[in-house]
Fold this sequence. Notes:
Helix content is 41%, strand content 13%. The protein is α/β, with parallel strands linked by helices and 390 residues long. The chain folds into 2 domains: 26-116 and 125-263, 3-Layer(aba) Sandwich (Aspartate Aminotransferase, domain 2), CATH 3.40.640.10; 266-389, Aspartate Aminotransferase, domain 1, CATH 3.90.1150.10. The strands form 3 sheets. A 7-stranded mixed β-sheet has the order 1-9-8-5-4-2-3, with helices on both faces. The longest helix is centred in the N-terminal third of the chain and has 22 residues, at 21-42. Mean pLDDT is 95; it is low at 1-5.
Amino acid sequence: MKAEGKKAEGKNNMKVPLLDLKLQYQTIKEEVMKVTEEIFESQYFILGPRVEALEKEIAEYCSSKHAVGVSSGTDALLISLMAADIGPEDKVITSTYTFFATAGSIARTGATPVFADIDPETYNISSKSIFRVMDGMTGKERKKIKAIIPVHLYGQCCDMDSILEIAAQYNLIVIEDAAQAIGAEYKGRRAGSIGDFGCFSFFPSKNLGAFGDGGIAATNSDEFFDKLRLLRVHGSHLKYYHNKVGGNFRLDALQAAIVSIKLKYLDGWTEARQANADKYRELFIDAGLEDIVNLPAEKENRHIYNQFVISLKEKRDDLKIFLTDAGIGTEIYYPVPMHLQDCFSNLNYGEGDFPAGEYAASHTLALPVYPELSYEQQAYVVERIKEFYS
């Protein structure tokens, strides 16, 4: 598809990547190289004191009693579902508009994902839609629902009071997918500390990223904490003696050490992302684009802007091509909602079932918002968008 003959013209002398981790690395390089050498000298690569230290730091940062380092954010979801004894014959409600790992982890336990629509302003799961989904079930079907996975998308928390109300009404486990939201808050409570489990990702592109895969599962329950630690190492506390069938969900010491270094800088990076979000708002208003571009809604008191996602009334795909030609990195999160994915066709969902999620999939676009982004780069992005629509 071509952008209707349009190309970015003039001023095409600036590059604005979607994310520039090289700039971040330069600020922590000395610390990273030092700890890397220490780990290489120790030859202690998996779990151990580095992971234990990070677990305590993340638990404190997220206001959770416990945290268990695991191999990825996906595995944090999977191991939390396993610890909650979710399995075949069970069903779990989650958002149709999310990264695949949320729904995929449910399916990997043998359970069935049940999708709900989103709030069109925040892109987070809609509690009204959850109620509608539950109301549309028979009593027998409702008994199969065992959990809800709300996804704190793009760095802003879901409406957790309503979700907890639903969970209490139907006796459901709440597993927060906070992969994009470490440090975000809902009414003064940190993401990942509000439900029964909180799941975080340290994928390199996250606002707190490792140098490879990594994740963590948090909980305030002593019982769930023990089960998470057991399941992380093949269901074994004592080597070669297995109480449950777990998995290899262990976190590497190197990744834990790097995340520990980055955690010290996270609040500063978050403030820079928030400042960049404010600058974008000013620039879009000054450009007179309010009728075309819907900017991210801030409904909670600490949106950490893992992504800055705009919604465009028309020509989203053409704009993306135009911005690419202008040297500007963008991304579509996410082009196909979960209920329309081929692998879930057996669930018999169809187009039109969740209109808000479907609209977001075809109209949203993520712009660069990383902490090191300059005002000149942001102005260039908005100028090119104005040029396209004019």
